[in-house]
Structure formats: structure tokens, C-alpha cells
Amino acid sequence: MSHPCLSCGACCASFRVDFHVSDLASHPGGGVPDALTVPVTATLVRMRGTDDGPPRCVALSGEVGREVSCSIYEQRPGPCRDFAPYAALGIGDEGCARARRRHGLPPLGA
């Protein structure tokens, strides 16, 4: 079974992605390239593009609903790692379903 997220990407083009600065590559143990983020507060940053209208993460490549990839998948921030933890098994959650609806896609498992 192929990973459904590789043909979706709806979450990356639906939500704002904010996270603690400790996830940045400039901090020990972090990995998100600083240049792909914008500061929100002294301790909070946001992935570029996720605050646009419509949102689309700068790290997302490809066409939503067809074929996508994350250019920083191994270094992605915590909120991305935590989103829809069972999607790889074809099981979405409400956030995943909302994102997919926004792009005209059926929920996972439907």
C-alpha cells in the first residue's frame, strides 16, 4: 500500500504551521531550515506560506491531490510530525478530513 500522503498534501495547503524555535536548524537538535520560517514571537515561528490565503507551505512540492512531497520531510517541525498519525495506514482524523474536504478530496478510508 502506498502512503496516502504522497498523493495528497492537503494538510500542507490548508493550515497555519506554528512551532517553537527549538525546532529550527539554528538550535541544537532542531532541523527546520530557518530561511523557510517567519518569526511570530520571540519563541514561536511559522512555516512560510502557511499564513497566505490560501495557505501553502513553502516546503510542499507538487500538486495537491495528485502527487506531492515535502522538501524537508526528515526535518519537518513537530506539528507536521504529529498531524494525522495514522494516515500511513489509510486512517485520517478530523483535521485530515477537513483539509481533504477543502481540496475536494474524500476523507481517508471513505
Question: Helix and strand layout, with pairings?
Answer:
Layout: E1 18-20, E2 37-39, E3 44-47, E4 60-63, E5 67-70, H1 78-82, H2 94-102
Antiparallel strand pairs: 1-3, 2-3, 4-5
Quick recap:
This protein has about 110 residues and is of the alpha+beta class. It has one domain (about 5-100).
Structural account:
The protein is α+β, with helices and mostly antiparallel strands and 110 residues long. It has one domain. The chain contains two helices and five strands; from the N terminus they run βββββαα. Strands 1-3-2 form a three-stranded antiparallel sheet, with no helix packed on it. β2 (37-39) and β3 form a beta hairpin. The protein is globular.
- Rg calculated over all Cα atoms: 14 Å
The 3D shape can be described as: globular
The total strand number stands at 5
Q: Could you state the order of secondary-structure elements as H and E?
A: EEEEEHH
Q: Helical percent range?
A: 10-25%
Strand order of the largest sheet: 1-3-2
Overall tally of structural domains: 1
What class, by secondary structure content? alpha+beta
**Average pLDDT:** 94
User: For the report, how would you describe the main beta sheet?
Assistant: 3 strands, antiparallel
